[in-house]
Amino acid sequence: MSGGFRSRSARRRTQPAEAPPRKAPIGDAAREAAWHVVLRVAEEGAYANLVLPKLLRERSITGRDAAFATELTYGTLRALGVLDAVIGHCSSRPLDNIEPAVLAAIRLGAYQLLYTRVDDHAAVDTSVRLVSASGNEKATGFANGILRTIARTPFEQWMSRLSPSGRVARAAFRTAHPEWIARSFDTALGGVELDEALTADSERPIVHLVARPGEITAEELALATGGEVGHYSPYAVYLTEGDPGKLDVVRDGLAAVQDEGSQLIARALVEVPVDSDSGRWLDLCAGPGGKAALIGALARIDGARVDAVEVSDHRAELVREAVAGLPVAVRVADGRVPGLEPGYDRILVDAPCSGLGALRRRPEARWTKSEGDIVGLTQLQRELLASALRLVKPGGVVVYSTCSPDLRETRAVVDAVLAGGEVEEVDARDFVLGMDNVGPGPSVQMWPHRHGTDAMFFAVLRKPAER
Question: Cβ contacts of residue 311 below 8 Å, gap of 6+?
Answer without folding.
Answer: 287, 332, 333, 334, 335
